[in-house]
Amino acid sequence: MSRIIAGVAGGNPLTSVPGTATRPTTDRVKEALFSRLESLAVIADARVLDLYAGSGSLGVESASRGARSVDLVEFDAKASDICQRNADMVNQILSAKRVSVHRSKVESFLERAGNQDMWDLVFLDPPYPLDEPALSAVLAKLAPHLDDAAVVVVERSSRSPEPEWPEALECFADKKYGETKLWFAEPA
Fold it and tell me: What pLDDT shows up at residue 20?
């Protein structure tokens, strides 16, 4: 069972998406990821975007740890409903609506984002079948919506190649955790 690891809502269980349509980030990987992000001082008061959100685990963890706002973007109807349940739980604990759910394809969401829509921390955990050119296109659409000091985290299979970064983004670190690999990027 997945849970919120730390922060105001720490210890609360998360509703998981049934079936095999999503790959939830394990608690071990999530704990290591958030330890790294806290050392980079990018969570507190951040505007967070969780693309291909699945259950919304990474986004609601960010809200629990002090993010100012979180946008969960998920197209699958079942997963989007789970995101909403997890968002409602965290918003209730926080006594504020910090987490919003958007049932949308990631590409459409980014195309609709206005010039004022900027994020400080972005998670991308796309389905493994998403090919590298499609991921690169999403990263290119995302780049204009990043704050100057933003951090982008891409989670993929450890067998996947490094993402093809658009010119506006550069990778500054990567880390492998068993079958999972994380890449960290920032605006170039």
Answer: 52
- Give 76's Cβ-side CA count (13 Å radius): 18
Q: What would the pLDDT profile of 28-52 be if each residue is shown by its tens digit?
A: 899 999 999 999 999 999 999 999 9
Distance CA 38, CA 25 (A): 18
- Domain 27-187 listed as CATH 3.40.50.150: yes
Report the predicted TM-score, pTM, of the whole model to 2 decimal places. Answer: 0.95
Domain ranges for the chain, please list them. Answer: 27-187
